[in-house]
Amino acid sequence: MTTETTTAHRTARFLPQLIKFGAVGAVGFGVNLVVFNVMLLIVLRNVEHRTIYATIIATVIAILTNWIGNRYWAFSGQRQDNAAREGVEFFAVSLVTGTGIPLLCVWVSHYLLGMVGPVADNISANVVGLAVGMLFRFALYRWWVFSPARTARANAKAGTADDAFTAPEPATTTGSTLARTPDSGLVGD
Length: 189
What we know:
With 189 residues, the protein is an all-alpha fold. It contains 6 helices and no strands.
């Protein structure tokens, strides 16, 4: 396979997944934004440190929403057979990147920079925090939680354990070497 074909193939797989991840993230962002403001302005209105609590509650509910969307849509072809393990990994990544990063941003904005108020809290938690967290989440979901290599290894181990007494299928090769060589396109392309 040529570098161009490999790159095009990777891009063809990567872009739809990135778009789906973005759509799931947009829904999660909406959930986070609504829950955060309901908590901040209504439910926790008279609670000290309400910004921190609102951020935690909104992020946990958004993580639940995102797990469902990512597991069954964005990364559906790569999800693990062991949903419990995948769920634990997903929540670990999401808590660190989805709660930790926005909380750090809120803390810096609120306590170090002295930017207090609903607008400053929303910008620090829901713009800066979620944007930085999103970059880390996509990378960790793609290359760790929903990693095709890890899923293939886990499925192979499960298959090996279940099929320990099954004889392997014989390898067959048909056709000429030329037929098995990938076509790199027209000369000069």
